[in-house]
Design goal:
CATH architecture of the largest domain: Alpha-Beta Barrel
Structural class: alpha/beta
Largest sheet: 9 strands, parallel
Number of helices: 20
Helix content: 25-40%
CATH superfamily of the largest domain: Glycoside hydrolase/deacetylase
Number of strands: 23
Shape: globular
CATH topology of the largest domain: TIM Barrel
Number of domains: 2
């Protein structure tokens, strides 16, 4: 009889009716056919599975994404934690958070809820929140994930009166079933932008041993809505995680705030440039700053949708568009960064870098490229401080990693234009033959500018300030270089204006504020000290342009102190208000002449011949 009962129990075990604790398997370890089969523990009843199946059908296969950041334009950085088994580490981190006036989200597993309820209670007492710490099996079972979510919510509500709807998978294989279960159970699944604790750092002694490889060289700061995750019980040093977070705050968060011209968040109550360290729910509940990425196309005005653009341009259409819609630059001419035009066509191209017809002392500020929150947030604060507009020409290939920042630029009332996707110039100088080369085929360039605009639509296509769209179909060519085929691709992609400018400050290379101030003043004032009406100033938003924000702050401060009747006082205009459908750059201007003598015309002819030679040899 005993033997018979053993056989029945074994059969039930193999059938999955009677369970045993499942083994924790390292997903990176190879398995072999010799590995014994272990029955999966079933932790839910048949009626529960039936309920989960109904939810699954209603969910229709949707997968909630594992968010690396939260889509928000609020100046918030999210702190999250896991690994609550070592009380010393938790208490140390709580002390650090209190010193930083920061809030965090602590993801709690079922095991931690059973064995460390007092630790969880202290976390809540300190004003922080808890989330669901999911420990899925190696197969990431849909039904088990649903059951685990329900158990965690039920027990957290019983013990602490909270029922979290945010989760992190702290252990187990990541499978679509986990994402599907979270979607069916209406749970938001979070990942991280930065993981402060890595396997290779387990034996690290100091923060210096770790932070050097947490961020790439190009990452100078954290960003809006980005998530920092710290596991507290992994490193051998129990208090090292707090030191790491302190270092991140000092070096990657505090530097985002503007501190220049004796204007800091600590000394000026109106300086609102600092970022807040907070928990997940604070950011999710701030609906004023939340948005959806990518922007649903139905929210984008029809006139700005990518598919709404002109048909293919032919001959005279392109010539007329160039005459009306191309704002050039004095430094770009037939012997430098122009290719594919005849002499007569070059004569007709604008070379002023000015908006025509400006009658008052209005100038225009523009910024190129792309960067991190540290440099761009400084610029946004200075523009906000002085109530002036600007146009930001964006390189888009890396925007997907920080779309919140681009969205924040637009929501602050700044105009958005394109600087292409990968910043490939239409023309490059070839020193071997002294001619201009086209680095991309027309089709390739067309794809690049189309992709750039599509990404801008994805992020800011629906943003309006005072009922005016912040996205434009303006584009600035990389290095200001132009080719006939490249410009045709631009207009055929739906762009309305190609905007270079009068003064390119090279602010990414200047050695000092004084040097940059000289360039800005040259762009604003002529040799007689008169304001250059309609002048377009080109600056940059990169980390290398380290003097730009403070120099601009000083320049605008001095300008504000001038009397209204001072002829040197300038105004800052918005390009979008001038570059309308009716505007034309094709106005007579004696200064806008590149070829005005037989000698110069001969130089142009020789240049065009060199271009042909270069292309015949390549």
């Amino acid at each position: 009889m005993k033997k018979q009962w053993i056989q029945i129990a074994l059969a039930l075990l193999l059938a999955g009716i009677v369970g045993s604790p499942s083994l924790a398997v390292d997903a990176t370890m190879p398995t072999t056919t010799a590995t014994p089969v272990v029955a999966k523990k079933v932790t839910y009843k048949p009626e529960d599975k039936a309920r989960y199946e109904v939810l699954r059908q209603q969910n229709q296969g949707q997968l909630v994404p594992k968010e690396r950041f939260i889509t928000t334009t609020a100046q918030d950085i999210v702190l999250t934690f896991g690994g609550l088994t070592r009380r010393e580490s938790v208490d140390d981190m709580l002390s650090h958070l209190a010193a930083m006036n920061a809030k965090g989200t602590f993801f709690v597993t079922e095991l931690e809820l059973r064995k460390h309820a007092d630790t969880v209670r202290e976390i809540l007492r300190r004003g922080h929140e808890i989330g669901l710490g999911l420990r899925t099996g190696t197969e990431g079972d849909f039904y088990e994930t649903c059951a685990q979510i329900e158990r965690l919510q039920k027990n957290m509500n019983r013990l602490f009166g909270v029922k979290p709807t945010i989760a992190r998978q702290v252990f187990g294989k990541e499978t679509p079933e986990v994402n599907e279960a979270c979607s069916a159970m209406r749970i938001q699944l979070l990942g991280q932008t930065v993981n402060t604790v890595q396997t290779k750092d387990k034996e690290a002694k100091t923060a210096e041993d770790i932070y050097a490889h947490l961020f790439g060289k190009a990452v100078t700061s954290m960003g809006r809505g980005q998530i920092i995750y710290t596991r507290l019980d992994f490193l051998d040093n129990p208090v090292l995680t707090g030191e790491i977070l302190e270092w991140i705050k000092r070096n990657k968060i505090d530097n985002i705030a503007y501190r220049g011209l004796n204007d800091t968040p600590e000394t000026n109550i109106e300086n609102d440039s600092a970022y807040r360290l907070t928990n997940v729910s604070e950011v999710l509940q701030d609906v004023q700053h939340r948005w959806q990425y990518p922007v649903p196309i139905e929210r984008v005005p029809e006139i700005l949708r990518p598919e709404n653009h002109p048909k293919k341009l032919e001959g005279q259409d392109l010539k007329n568009l160039l005459a009306k819609r191309y704002i050039g630059a004095p430094t770009v001419n037939a012997v430098d960064r122009i290719q594919g035009f005849t002499i007569s066509e070059i004569k007709r191209l604008d070379k002023t870098g000015f908006i025509k017809g400006v009658k008052d002392n209005t100038i225009f500020l523009t910024f190129d490229d792309w960067s991190n929150d540290a440099s761009i947030n400084h610029l946004l604060y200075v523009l906000r401080k002085h109530h002036v507009p600007a146009t930001f020409f964006i390189i888009t290939w890396n925007v997907k990693n920080n779309p919140n920042l681009l969205r924040a630029i637009a929501e602050s009332g700044q105009i958005i234009g394109s600087h292409t996707n990968k910043h490939y110039p239409m023309v490059v100088q070839d020193n071997t033959y002294g001619g201009n080369l086209i680095p991309m085929e027309p089709k390739e360039y067309a794809e690049d500018v189309q992709k750039a605009y599509a990404e801008l639509v994805n992020v800011v296509g629906d943003v309006k300030v005072n009922e005016k769209p912040m996205l434009t179909r303006f584009i600035r060519p990389p290095t200001l270089a132009i080719s006939k085929s490249g410009l045709q691709s631009i207009f055929e992609a739906g762009y309305t204006y190609v905007v270079s400018g009068f003064e390119s400050t090279d602010d990414y290379a200047v050695p000092s504020m004084q040097s940059l101030a000289g360039g800005l003043n040259h762009g604003i004032y002529d040799e007689n000290g008169n304001v250059r009406k309609g002048s377009i100033i080109i600056m940059h938003m990169t980390d290398h342009a380290k003097y730009t924000a403070e120099t601009l702050d000083e320049l605008l401060t001095i300008n504000e102190q001038r009397l209204d009747n001072d002829p040197k006082k300038f105004k800052v205009g918005c390009l979008e208000d001038y570059l309308t459908e009716e505007y034309s750059q094709d106005m007579k201007d004696k200064k806008n002449t590149l070829v005005d003598s037989s000698t110069e015309e001969q130089q142009v002819r020789e240049k065009l011949e060199r271009d042909q030679l270069v292309h015949s040899k390549n």
